[in-house]
Amino acid sequence: MSTKTKSIELVRxxxxxxxxxxxxxxxxxxxxxxxxxxISAQLDAMAACHAQEDxxxxxxxxxxxxxxxxxxxxxxxxxxSGMRTTVNVALKHVDPAVCEAAKGLKIVMDTYGNxxxxxxxxQTSATYNLLQELNGKYAENSTVAGLNIWxxxxxxLNNTLDQLMMARIDERMEKPTVTMxxxxxxxxxxxxxxxxxxxxxxxxxxxxxxxxxxxxxxxLITQYADAMAQKKGRKKEKTxxxx
Length: 243
Known about the structure:
Elements: H1 15-32, H2 34-37, H3 40-58, H4 64-90, H5 96-112, H6 120-135, H7 139-144, H8 148-174, H9 180-205, H10 208-239
């Protein structure tokens, strides 16, 4: 019976395989008993590294909110353009009251200019201020000129965009502070420290518990080593096809 854990090329594993190997290794050692094996501190350290690796694995580099923001921003630009057109058309309305209301709105629209050309955050701020004018001092003008439907839609889109941009910031705050490569390196180091300690106690104490532990660890290592060997073999077959 081997009294030493087998070696395994952790660097050759895919991210998912590496994560699963580490998870199962932690599970095996927890089932046997970290205190009984005198590895509580080392197993805790490895579990912490594994948790960081888990975060890295879950990271979606492209924010879930980015595509939504781009689509809504385009809709907002379209609505704003429609609003400007509505005011210009109202200036030529047959009803003098509508024309008069449109004149006031024209002043406001010209003051803010084409805010659709502004950067995203600046556009959101400028739109908010424009809407305050249309909901306040020029609320009656908006009603008379038939601008309310455009104003309300613009407000809905602007508020939604503001919320999504904040959500994107929250997403970025949740991202791990290390890369997957760094996380895996830390996990590998923690595993090696753990394995060395188990091997050392197996020689010093020569208790059956360590023999059982090493046997289980080696079975797990063999399982993953075989899987990597099979994968390597399949790649070799594809590279050198039989003709």
